Amino acid sequence: MESVRNRYLFLEELKSAFEKMLDELNSKPSLHIKDLNPKNTVLIIIDMVNGFCKEGSLYSSRIKSLIENTVETMKLCRENNIPVIAFADSHTDKSPELKAYPPHCIKGSLESEIIDEIKEVGGYTLIEKNSTNGFLEDKFQQWLKENSQITNMIVIGDCTDICIEQFSNCAKAYYNIKDIESRIIVPMDTVETYDLGTHKADLLNIVASFIMAGNGVELIKTIE
Q1: Rounded to an integer, what distance in angstroms lies between the CA atom of residue 27 and that of residue 114?
Q2: What CATH architecture is 31-220?
Q3: Domain ranges of the chain
Q4: Structure confidence by residue, pLDDT tens digits, 13-59
Q5: Model pTM score
Q6: Peptide bond before 159: cis, by omega within 30 degrees of 0?
Q7: What is the rounded distance in angstroms from the CA atom of residue 125 to the CA atom of residue 189?
Q8: Cα separation of 158 and 191, whole Å?
Q9: How far apart are CA 212 and CA 217, in angstroms?
Q10: Could you give the CA distance from residue 217 to residue 169 in angstroms, rounded to a whole number?
Q11: Is 172 in contact with 216 (CB distance < 8 Å)?
């Protein structure tokens, strides 16, 4: 009986906590693009590829719903001379990640390609990634070295609790270790995750958002 009672109390406490968390997220402000200096800002688009947005074993309609806001944010940044990097999940057939997830986004496949809507806007640097954490890719590390003036990153795409969280927390830690003030910005209307079994998107969007915020990542409602 004790374990049943404790479980009930635990779930009741969680309900109260999540209500407060939702209220806090809903109160986040928007950010105007003009408040960012284009000379030290970059837009990071993560995994808006066919294999998540349009087809394949890891396709999600929730990810597909990001397309319009992603394109609008990309256009806004392009209009304000903010450079854009687009990461694309692109695995070798030997990738250990394929043991954790169904086969997806194999290098050279249609799934691994950036969606046409982003291609049509153009003007971005493409970086393929062979793991969930694009920040660790050699090509991106080289880009950082060549663009040391960058201290602000707008991070959008999918998935909130996996690739977005890992990239954003790594980026914040990267600047912190160098004693460099930075803004790692995640607009909540341009990130999403998927529903599958106990992987509940609404729950994990909240949890991942608060993990990022706890590490100094800046959550905002949207970029205008």
Answers
A1: 32
A2: 3-Layer(aba) Sandwich (3.40)
A3: 1-30, 31-220
A4: 999 999 999 999 999 999 999 999 999 999 999 999 999 999 999 99
A5: 0.95
A6: yes
A7: 23
A8: 6
A9: 5
A10: 7
A11: yes
